[in-house]
Amino acid sequence: MSHTADMLKLLQQLPLEIKIEKSKQRIIEWYEHYQGQVYISFSGGKDSTVLLYLAREIYKDIEAVFVDTGLEYDQIRSFVKTFDNVTWIKPKMRFDEVITKYGYPIISKTISRRVSDACSNKKSYAHAMFNGTYKAKNNGDKSQFNCEKWKFLLGAPFKISQKCCDIMKKQPLHQFQKTNNKKPIIATMADESMQRKQGWIKTGCNAFDSKDAISKPLSFWTEQDVLQFLLIYKIPYCNIYGDIVQDDTGKLKTTGQQRTGCVFCGYGAHLEKSPNRYKKLKEIDFKK
Length: 288
Hints:
By secondary structure, the protein is of the alpha/beta class. The protein has helices at residues 5-12, 16-33, 46-58, 74-80, 95-101, 109-120, 125-130, 163-180, 194-203, 223-232, 277-286, and strands at 38-41, 64-67, 86-89, 106-107, 183-185, 206-207, 214-215, 244-246, 252-254, 266-267. It has two domains: 5-96 and 163-281, HUPs (Rossmann fold); 106-155, no CATH class. Helices cover 41% and strands 10% of the residues.
């Protein structure tokens, strides 16, 4: 079955009730294909909370796995502990060891990777991208190759790399999968990034034939769907998000943290209005 951007757009426009049923069907297909040898990647965030709820409506004993990186909000860790049948795993390296050896994750995963590549090899494609001399094949979308505005990062007095997420989160999960022979179900959505959109177009929700088989049954959901689901069905979620309310345009938003990934991650921080995530972190840490 082929997947296209237009097909994804149509799925994203479906009513929430239909999305719920389609996501449940994707979960069932994955579970049955691997005869129950699957697990939910559970971060404690609002998206994976919705995923775990949907999955356990069908399979109440399905295992959840939480990667304890040491970089989570205390509220997230406390929330995860309220769930049964959650396996906690840890990375082999600490965050300070990762950034010392490889570098900080900033701007985006793509930019961090290209900065790292460019600094290690001045003849690389990445280095050419920062200098504006790299030409996209077939006159493709030049915007994705335009790194010139980030050229100053090549002279940063600290290392920059995309490896943090790989080492802190992906490697522990891959080891868990290998040891337990289980396939993951994750809560990522296609509208979160161009990379995730392209991933859906390539495989759809259930990537049975990929080298790293993975299920993403919420791929065609949006953040509005997630917030609406939590609100309508009164699903408990981590209090770090605050309340779910409507803004002036009628869209749903949370009054607390907007994201709850690793607290020191720099991806997207440059796009945030003040107070940004780091200022909010200070308020959270010191407010008693």
